[in-house]
Amino acid sequence: MSTVTLTPRPRLTDRLATLPVVVIGAGPVGLAAAAHLADRGIEFIVVEAASGPAAAVQQWGHVRLFSAWREVIDPVARRLLQEAGWDGPVNENRAPSGQELVDEYLRPLGALPVIARHVRYDTRVTAVSREGMDRTRSAGRDTTPFVIRVGAGRESEQILARAVLDASGTYNSPNPLLSAGWSPAEDTAMTDRVTHALPDVLGRDRERFAGRHAVVVGAGHSAANTLIALVQLQRDEPGTRISWLIRNATAVRVSSSAEDELLSRAQLGARVDRYVASGKVEKVDSFEIDDVEATAGGVRLRGRRQGEPASLDADVVVNATGFRPDLAPLREIRTDLDAIVEAPRLLAPLIDPNVHSCGTVEPHGFRELTHPEHGFFIVGMKSYGRAPTFLLATGYEQVRSVAAWLAGDLASASRVELTLPATGVCSTDAGGCC
Description:
By secondary structure, this protein is an alpha/beta fold.
């Protein structure tokens, strides 16, 4: 087992002191990191694969968040925006949609001069390492700059950094449909029949679902949102049939809970409960998917139900089975990840769904996010690995603490400055939420 060393403050050589901190990803947590670094006067670069901020959020922009505006705006980002004349949301108690979050908060934040001049869009990170070192080299490692390769082939280039914050998220790395964790053998042949989580059922993806049999696979809130949208579509398109496939006997985390302080999330579960009880949604529980096959008219899910062979045919399948981190670019970085959830080892016990029955996670910072690679941190949704129920406020607290540590302010880095709402929501193996 590797050993984590909690260094009181970064050890900067003269060369390292001239280099920026590189933030990977310009989503909500990546831009919050930029705000905190800018506020502390730390030079930084944000690299983002998409052509604008929060590209993943925009993919599910039609979905409303569980949290109100007051809970999804980073405090330092808010102050910087207000100093620039930003008025903010009219009703702080209302939960925004993903697109509203982007248009009314993240775009203005990314456009602030203290941030915008440091952001490089259309810049995909393909690898992170130490300059001239693979992960086996130890001598002088902590004082050697990070090297970040962006682009590919002849178009690639390298960026040197004193520290790296990976806030690239997990939305583009969904868990495969098969219960064994594998991708279907015919995965590439079914891109038109198996969709990503949170499709825009009532908008751009309507024709794909109207009057057809849709099977939603997954026991989390992404699945619940899609089921609710499909029921709404069913009212206009009576031929629409909805099946909900889960691999356990119950979907505890989606089911309503009186203890959930995030009211809209509790209501989400209650609505799904009612739709199942009324027959609008057919729940198929205890189904283990062993393979997915293309058929003449759609797709067939083959597997086992309560130990017996079973199959289910559909026109279209929604893969809402959760997400996992893409660790390929970090192959030469010395990470210390939990073997089960692929989160930082010190954070994993706080979020492991096999141990914790509810989604409440203690606020945490640089200590829980530390790896053997001095100056490297995974933050935001990616820091949760395969575990569910990530809140934006948690990510904001992470980057506040890490930025303080990078500035040498250990007292602030170690102090908890966040109180989370009690979730009262049980966890299974589904994706995250905001």
